[in-house]
Amino acid sequence: MRAPPPHRRPTAAPPPPHRRPTAAPAAHGPSPLRRGPRAAPAARAAMEAAAALNESGAAAPRLPAGGGNSSLELSSRPPAPAALNPWDVMLCVSGTAIACENALVVAIICYSPALRTPMFVLVGSLATADLLAGLGLILNFVFQYVIRSETVSLLTVGFLVASFAASVSSLLAITVDRYLSLYNALTYYSERTVLCIHTMLAGAWGVSLCLGLLPVLGWNCLHDRTSCSVVRPLTKSNVTLLSASFFLIFLIMLHLYIEICKIVCRHAHQIALQQHFLTASHYVTTKKGVSTLAIILGTFGASWLPFAIYCVVGDPDYPSVYTYATLLPATYNSMINPIIYAYRNQEIQRSMWVLFCGCFQAKVSFRSRSPSDV
Questions:
Q1: Using an 8 Å Cβ cutoff, are 220 and 235 in contact?
Q2: I need a surface site. Which of 6, 168, 262, 267 has the fewest CB within 10 A?
Q3: Long-range contacts of range 284-292, CB-CB < 8 Å, 24 or more positions apart?
Q4: Calpha distance 105→132 (Å, rounded)
Q5: For residue range 122-170, what is the model confidence (pLDDT) as tens digits?
Q6: What's the pLDDT at 283?
Q7: What is the pLDDT of residues 306-322, one digit of tens each?
């Protein structure tokens, strides 16, 4: 007999090897960077495309964090050119016209030795200020679309503020000169008057230069946008000061022109009484003088008052079209000034004939005009 086999205990099956649980694949599919027979060609193609873009000089594409089929995003893009603003173009055109007109006036006054009286010194100061304002408008356009810099912006704005302030101050000086020529007609051509005129001009240009330096020296809103005005980078307090100065100058000019009208009417009436009758020419002359003064003051007020008022009541959150719509007419004053104060003058007209024709035509009659001629 064969012996029965020895009894063996049943052994349990060996446990399966421990495996780390794997996360479920993303809903959008396997990552292109995952190694595998299928994912390798996709990852290799993406790397080759990135290398090709880098070699071509284009910006390197940035893959989304989750991979997948999301669209590529460029890590850096070249800055888009600034869109040309039609208002800026109109300001540049206005500045070009202003610069050309006033450059001619400055050239004529410098060319003619006879134009050295206090009246022409004042007209030359006005033309110089308007010439600088026109150049400032041109430079502002160039720097805005060619050289973008906060420092350049501050310098340009300060230059414009100083130029326009000098223009308005020169207008006030001309008004004072006209008043003095009528009120003190006997002593007007004395050396004291010449000294007074030069002192006024020195003070006007000094104050204008200080006003232009304020934003450059730190009175700006580059670091505090909440304090900006409708004319960036000027602060609200800065434009309020400029507007208040303009209102004061306008009121002084209004008062002086009213006094000039009274003096003109009184002188014309006295001359007519000395002739023992009032002729029709007396009324025509008086009416013409008053109308000319009204045109001068009306042009100045219509040009600058809207912008000065808007600088006070406007808010920086308002559309910029309001600022442009009030600033553009203000520049027209510098365009009209040469016509009112220079080209109407007989002495300047005669100098223009000599400058452009090279000879003086005797058949054209000119008469000398005094500052009191309005």
A1: yes
A2: 6
A3: 289/261, 289/264, 289/374, 290/261, 290/264, 290/265, 292/374
A4: 13
A5: 999 999 999 999 999 999 999 888 887 778 888 999 999 999 999 999 9
A6: 54
A7: 999 999 999 888 999 99
- Alpha helix stretches (DSSP H) within the chain: 39-55, 86-111, 118-145, 150-183, 191-216, 236-274, 280-313, 320-338, 346-357
Phi, psi of 61 (to 5 degrees): -75, 145
Rounded Cα distance between 226 and 219, Å, is: 13
Give the pLDDT band of residue 232 (cuts 50, 70, 90). confident
Residue 315: both structure tokens together: 């808010």
Task: Give the residue-averaged pLDDT of 272-284.
Answer: 58
What is the pLDDT at residue 276? 58
Q: Would you state the torsion angle of the CA atoms of residues 312, 316, 320, 325, taken in this order, to the nearest 10 degrees?
A: 0
Q: What is the pTM of this model?
A: 0.73
For the chain, how many residues are written?
A: 374
Query: How far from 114 is each of 105, 109, 212, 303, 374, CA to CA, in Å?
Result: 14, 8, 33, 32, 21
Domain ranges of the chain: 86-357
Surface-to-core class of residue 177, CB atoms within 10 Å of its CB (0-12 exposed, 13-18 middle, 19+ buried): buried
From CA 159, how far away is CA 140, in angstroms rounded? 10
Could you count the other beta carbons within 10 Å of the beta carbon of residue 201? 20
Percent of the chain with pLDDT over 90: 42
CA 309 – CA 231 distance, rounded (Å): 13
Give the integer Cα–Cα distance in Å for 242 and 257: 22
Average pLDDT over residues 15-23: 52
Distance CA 94, CA 332 (A): 7
